Structures are given as C-alpha cells and as structure tokens.
C-alpha cells in the first residue's frame, strides 16, 4: 500500500491499528462510487444524511477550537469550520438541488441512527475528553475521505464531482494540514515518544471506534433510499 | 391506556408526542421478556451491552449534577448515580455471573453501534444543551423501563428477576421522583406555561429521538447473540 | 441616554437590569482613555491582559458555534472567531510591538485573577448552560465596548487608535449583528414573550455578573502596571 | 517540612512546583484561624462565600464523574459529591445558623469575584480539558485544606470546630484517597514516567493557578466583612 497518501505519523499508526479501516475505505458504497454502479437513490440518501452530518461536524471542529490550547490550534480549527461551511456543504446543496432536493428538504431530513451514532460519538469524545480525543475521533472522516479521494481520482463516471471534491489538491492539502496539526498537538502535550504511552491506546481506540461508525454510515447509504 | 403509571406532566406530554413510544415499550424483545420466549443468548447479549450502557448512563447523570442549578437538583442527580451503581449495575453483574460471564468479560465487551448511538446522543445532548436537554434525553430510558416494568409485573417466567427489578416499588418511586424533578426543573426555568414555548418542541424532539434509539437498542438485543 | 447605540432588545433590557453597567462603561480607566490621562504603563498592562483575554474569548465564541442549533448560528459564531483573530488581536499585537512588547512577551504574561475570573466565568456559563447562557455572558464585553467606542468617538488623544477600533463602523456593525443574533436566538427558543419567563431572570443575572467582572477587569488595568 | 501529610506522588510534586503554595497554606487568614485572632465577621464572610463555593465544587466533582473513564473513577468522584453534600456543607449551615445566618441568607449571598474566579477556573479546566486537568485544578482545595487541618490540629480556640473538620481522620482519609485516585489516573493514562512529559507541566500549571486563586479566596475573607 505504498501509494497511500501521507497525512502524518499519528494517522499512519492509527490507521494500521483500526481493524475496520479497509472495511471503511473499501466499502461497497465506495466501490459503487468508483465504478459508477451505485444507484442514484442511494447516493442522494447518503448525501442528505451527509449534509446533516456536516452540520454536526462543523460543530465538532468549533468545539476543537474551544478546546485548543494555542492560538495556532484555534486558528486551524476555526479555518476548518469555515472550510466545511464554504467548501463541502455548498457542494452537497448544489448536487441535491440538481436532483430536486432543496435546502428546506435537506434540513427537514431526519437523522438516521448511523448518523446520530457517529456524530454524537465524535462530539461526546470531544466534550468528555480533551483536544486529542477530539482529533482522534475526527480523523477517520477527514483523512479517510482524503485517502478515498486520492485512490478514486480519475475514475470518472456519474460520481466524478464527488470524487474530485476529495481528490482535489485543496482537500488533499487540508488533509496534510490536519495530519500535521494532530502530530504537533500530540508531541506538544505528550512528547515525541507519545506512542509508547497508555494514552496512545486510548486515542487509537477512539480512532478505531469512529472508523467502525464510518462503516455504519456507508452501510446506511447502501441500505436506505 | 388508563393503567399507565403517572410519572408527571412532562413525561405524559413527551410520551404522547414521541412517534416511536409504542415501538419501544412493546418491542418484540420486551414481549419476549414477558412471555419468556426470548432466547437466553439474546438476553445475555442485551445484558452485556446494557452493562456498558449503564456506565455511560451513570456518567450522564453525573453530568446532570454538574449542570444542575440548585442544590436539590445536584442531590437528586447524584443520588441517581449512586442508585445506578448500587442497584441496577450489581443486578447485571449477578445475572451475568450466573451465566458464566464475569466482570472482566463484561467490561471487555465492545460497545455495539446501537449502544454508542444512544449513550453518546444522551451525553452530547447534555453537554451541548442545558439541564433540561439532558433530562429530556434521559427520560425515555428511566421512565420507559418503569412503564415496561409496571406493565409486565407478575408475568413470571425465566425473566422475572429482570421484570421485578423495574416493577419494584423502589424503582417505581425513582421514576416518580425523576418525573417530579423534570416537572419542577421545567417550571423553575420556563414557567408553568412552558409547553406553549418553542423550547418545548426542542425538548420533545430530544425525547422522541432518544426513544427511537431505544428501539434500536432492543433490536440490537434481538439481532445479536 | 437617548444617544446610546441600539444593539437590540435583549441588550437594552439586560443593560437596564445590570446594576454595574455604568460602573463598567464609565469606569475611571475608560475616562482615562477618553481624556488621555491614563498612564501608558496602565494601558500596556491592560493590553497585555486583554491579549490573553481575547484568546479565551475566541475560544468562547468557538464554543458558541459548537452549541449552536442552526447553521446560521454556527456561521455567525465562527465569523466572530475569525474577526477576533484577524481584527482585534492584531491591533493588540501592533500596539504592544510599538511599545517594545513582542508576541513572545505577550504570550508569557501571567493571567491576572480578574482576567481568569471573567474569561472562565464566560466559558463555564457556556459549558454548563446552553447557547443563550453563553450569549448573555459574552454580551457585556462585545456590546459594552461598542457602547464605549460610540461614546468616546472623536475624543482624539494618545488612545485614539484604541477608541477608533471600537467606534469604527465595522465594529459597530458587528455589535448590531451580535445583538440581532441574540434577539433571534431568544425568540426562536423561548418565543416572543421570553422576557416574562423565569429563564429571562437567569440570563439577566448572567449578563449582570459578567458586567461586574468587566469592572474588575478595568480596575486590574488601573491597579497594575 | 517532614511533617507534611502524605497525599501521594502527584500532590508532592505539584505542591513543590506551585510558587504560591506557602502563601496559600500559611495565609494570614489561616494564621488567624490558628491563633483565634481572626475577627468573627471575617470568618462568617468567608463561610458564606465558602458555602457558595462548595455548591460549585460539588458540581465540579460531579463533572469529574462524567469525565471518568473507569467505573472506579466514577464511584470515587460520585462519593466525593455525596461527602461534600453530607459532610462539609452541613457544617457550614450549622455554624452560620448559630451566627444567625439562615439557609436563605446563605443562598442569597452574591458570589465575590475571588469566588467566581476560583470555582469557574476549576469547572472550565474540567470542561475544556480532561479528567486529569480537572483533578489538578481540584487538588489544591481538597488537599490544601487537609494539609492546613493537619498542621492546625489541636490549636483549640474559637475556630476549633472548623480546624477539627479538616484535621479529622475522616477528612485526612479522603485526602489520601483523592491523592491515590490522582496518582492512579495519571499512571493509567500517561504511564509511570508521566512526570517527564510536557503534559506534566500543563497539569502542574493548572495546580499552580488554582493555588493562586486559593490565596485570593483567603484574601477575600480577610478584606470583606
């Protein structure tokens, strides 16, 4: 897997330790995006849920800014909130609009259990733990989508807009920045040998659990319609 | 339904407004407890998850004490933490022990997605909202189990210990106390006409969402083993 | 006081109910800024503490975004975090730099008790309460500085840069926007008759306590050096 | 200082690193308690504020239970909430009642800035950080009072009830338990060499800041009346 994008040390470690990582990044839903065989209805079902997901995700990144300990961390987290609101969310709104789903319909969508599970797990990790717990819970989504985007780049087909949004250099740079933010935050707090601490296992479990919930999110997209 | 137990005004209203209330309190899993036809393996699967659930639930009640605004609220919430640790959790430990599942095995259990969804939803409601949001998210579990216990009282059968724990007057009194705590908290903050405020719809939605997640919890018990 | 700026209904009410409002907005420190007789050492002492204050304040606005319930609230709060980081904080850095205090010195400053009291009161109000509690605790600073800026406009003197920063139409517009955000948030949650609810007294007390702590902050500037 | 009580490793280290530790534990207010020369009015002023302090302190220990990661931590923190509500708070109520200050008067007391500073600092440390941050912020009060009680034991005089409450073996045992809870929590998360990590400096600063705010609390008692 030498062609995996490099988003830093912590991510490389956590990814290797998360049993469900491949089930997440190679889920049948993802394969359907790649081959173009994913039914449109499933994609739209996913997209509506993902719109609600992003609202919670923006809240989680805002919480990261609240829990930050340096001005640089505050600025990085706040910039991500802005990126979500200005980059990812409008993409969803546009694609849905073209499919006849307007913003009111988007916002009236009921959150699916798999959506509640994931978003609330992340937010609660942040509230109950500290900045690092939140980063470990946020990482599978941000960086996993980056990895999927990089792998699916150039696939073409009906979902090429979605693929390009995450394959795009702008998003890839965001992933590298988030990876660097996490690595720096770990070293600043726990020292360069952080991976040997019991704390590292806690954080790895956070990442692994969030990864499991990502699998559930794709599955929800595949099952629903 | 004139034989429903009376746990106060807010509960009566929220229950009536939660579309999934009957799906929760009359779930096939509950019927299996009543008739005794629920396979033992499903019950033990449920019980292991419920043990992990109660740890998170104790944390949520502790959070309620942290978010309380009066000494009486702090004391009521803290007493519930103690009741959970001394009343419900030992029951689970004993039943599991008799089935050959020791405490180490209990604590090594991986939280199922339906468990994560429910517990994190409750905790996050508490962290992001205030004391009332937390109460509305906690109520379906505490009071729903009371309602189920009252209905199944005297059913006998292999699950009579479980049924009696919630049919028991001690647990019923806890339900009335929690109901009164919620009613008082609402009136103290929002006035006696609280049900007419937009805030009431938010709280009702919290209750309804938590109720939906209770359905998922029973279903997890029925599906898994 | 017909020449007071109009930052909305909630602010007008809370200001009228806060016993220390005039002690805050007409504090001897403020008068010293207006007349120019405030010793430079006190101003710099204040500015260093205020720089640390703004870091906590940015965290508090980020928390507001995390606790928001609509996308519009998330965006408004996130925009304020950006405004603080890009508008107010650089002003402090520049003024301090001209006085020979570099960023490292700024960040090495120990938070004074009056600073800890105010910032942690605001953050804790936000964590323990909900979005409205946080707004009520944040309002005295944002809007009080706007009111002071509007009153001191055109005073000239050695502190005219500071005065202009808050008298400036950009800052005045921010104040009107924040006032509108608060009014809308109140009506959305508590209805148009919110001021008659017990909840209104809680929020008014939050505002009044934060105002008391603002007085302590000016006094810290006057006492220290 | 070989006669200092032993409340564990973390406390010994943090105490040694907190510049204001002696200013706190040997404050003129404490000396006044020891010699009996502290004016009654100052003691009662302190006691009224301390009653309000304990309500916030109970909330902070409840938050610790919410942020705990093991059942043992939840139980220890919840037991402390109960101890505060049943041990320390009634002592205050009784002493105040004998001085003609009833519970209503106690609860109507306005929190002094020094009180707000300390309690909100502790709560915010807990909300923004994790369980360890909260423990480091809580420790100076719990354990400092234990150290003062042990030192003043047998002083007699008009304040012997207060002194005995903290010199008492029950309170001393609580201090040893809290010290052990902290040591175990540190090792469980950060490993046995935790003191060498950058994280240790953060925690030590939390403890040192809370100690500074304890000095302010005594000073408030001495100044007010």
Automatic annotation (TrEMBL), chains A, B, C, D:
Residues 18-223 form the Thiaminase-2/PQQC domain. It comes from Gemmobacter denitrificans. InterPro entries: Haem_Oase-like_multi-hlx, Thiaminase-2/PQQC, Thiamine_Salvage_TenA. This is TenA family protein. CDD domains: TenA_C_ScTHI20-like. SUPFAM superfamilies: Heme oxygenase-like. It comes from the Bacteria.
